[in-house]
Amino acid sequence: MGLSDTKSANGVMVVRVEGQLVVGNRNELKEHLHRLLEKGERRFLIDFAQTGYIDSSGLGALVLLGRKVREEGGDLRLSGLNEDLRSLFELTKLDTLFAISETPDQALATF
Question: E strands, 11-96, where?
Fold first, then answer.
């Protein structure tokens, strides 16, 4: 899994996940967002446009991150889920926990 981040014009930290979010690498994403929180970032968009698969441990990591960001007074949103991932989020009802947009631009417009 690869991670990269950029700050949007409206101050949202956009984190792009490339590859799979699975048991072997979920802590990388958690640690990455924790470092950004420590630096004072509070608004996040995780873009999964380059992600093909998320396992149950990856979903669990997202739930924990969402809770942590909210506890810190922030906001965590998602974008770029492919059809399979979108179905997974609907089946697990996680689409009710996260604001999910088709594209990063659509998501950034809602912050």
Answer: 13-21, 43-54, 75-79
Burial of 94 (0-12, 13-18, 19+ CB in 10 A): middle
Q: Are strands 99-101 and 13-21 parallel, antiparallel or unpaired?
A: unpaired
pTM over 0.85: yes
Q: How far is CA 17 from the centre of its chain?
A: 8
Q: How many CA atoms, within 13 angstroms, populate the side-chain half-sphere of residue 105?
A: 0
- Residues of the chain above pLDDT 70, percent: 100
User: Which class would CATH give 2-101?
Assistant: alpha beta
**In sequence order, what are the residues at sequence separation of 6 or more whose Cβ sits closer than 8 angstroms to the Cβ of residue 91?**
none
Q: Which are the contacts of 92, defined by CB distance < 8 A and separation ≥ 6?
A: 59
Question: What tokens does 44 get?
Answer: 């996040």
**In this structure, what DSSP letter does residue 12 have?**
P
How many Å apart are CA 85 and CA 83, to the nearest integer? 6
